[in-house]
Amino acid sequence: MIDIHTHILPGLDDGAANWNDALNMARAAVSEGITTIIATPHHANGTYTNAAVDVAEHTHAINEQLIAAGVPVTIRTGQEIRVHDGLLDAWYRRELLTLADSSYVLIEMPSSRIPKTMIELIHEFNVLNLKPIIAHPERNAEVTQHPERLAELIDAGAYAQMTTHSLLGGFGKRIEQHAWSLMKSGHIHIVSSDAHHVERRGFRMGEAYSFIERRMGEQWVNYFKSNAEAVIHDSPFHNQPPLASASEGAVRRFLSYFYKK
Ligand code: FE
Questions:
Q1: Signed CA dihedral, 61, 67, 68, 69: sign only
Q2: Domain of 246: which CATH number?
Q3: Contact (Cβ atoms closer than 8 angstroms) between residue 179 and residue 166
Q4: Which of 17, 64, 74, 226 has a 20 to 30 Å separation from 55 between CA atoms?
């Protein structure tokens, strides 16, 4: 399994605080069957600045330490880039990183709203042959109220990443319900942990995928997993499986009640 959004690099943001935290996270990831983790420390979010060179340096160091500690997981470089006015200038200044050297870029909107410049920014990314992935739209207040506005961003050329904890109720019932509704309406392209800490916010990837299998079917699990692979290989995302009609969804829920996996 591949996890494209994590805060595993120690001491850079509100994720792993030190080497011990990072090592515990890496071991937990291995025990879930995760083989590659993209480190995406917060960048330009008003609190944390982690420019490309720093992330690359820390990623190199953590991989050396993981090899020395015998933990079989590879960390790749990335950032969770807050949408801000000077974002494209920062790209030209080479301060930004794509995910694992691919053409995919993880961007984060403020939690309260969709910035007015989003559509324009997505177009600019596309012109640069970059594919923006919007981090956890299920946690954005404007998307919650107007999911069609997320659909507009997707139509403009963006993708959307769902966080495992949202699906599993870690951010409360409201976000959980909203998260599943975005999933079932086909607005989500990739699932990842946004892991910050092994206990407070771990990976829970296996758990989330088994819920997705139960509620949406195995082909959706395969779709999300293969898209995570596509990021690493810098290949296009796969075609979405057909969306279940309301009645099919009801049958699946009915059956899963009796055949809990
Ligand atoms: Fe994050």
A1: positive
A2: 3.20.20.140
A3: yes
A4: 226
CB distance 86 to 49 below 8 Å: no
For residue 40, the CA-to-ligand 1 centroid distance in Å is 7
pLDDT tens, position by position, 158-196: 999 999 999 999 999 999 999 999 999 999 999 999 999
Instruction: Show the tokens assigned to 128.
Output: 């640069």
Would you say how long the chain is, in residues?
261
CB-neighbour burial class of residue 245 (10 A; exposed 0-12, middle 13-18, buried 19+):
exposed
Res 128 pLDDT > 70: yes
Ligand 1 center to residue 236 CA distance, Å?
A: 23
Please tell me the distance between residue 80's alpha carbon and the centre of ligand 1 in angstroms.
6
How far apart are the CA of 208 and the centre of ligand 1, in A?
17
Using the mean position of ligand 1's atoms as its centre, give its distance from the Cα of residue 259 in Å.
34
Helix, coil or strand: residue 209? helix
- Tell me the sheet residues that pair with 173: none
Does pTM top 0.90 for this prediction? Answer: yes
What pLDDT, in 10s, does the model give residues 202-251?
999 999 999 999 999 999 999 999 999 999 999 999 999 998 776 666 66
Q: Tell me which residue range forms the domain holding 63.
A: 2-260
Phi first, then psi, for residue 191 (nearest 5°) are: -120, 135
Instruction: Report how far ligand 1's centroid is from the alpha carbon of 5 (Å).
Output: 6
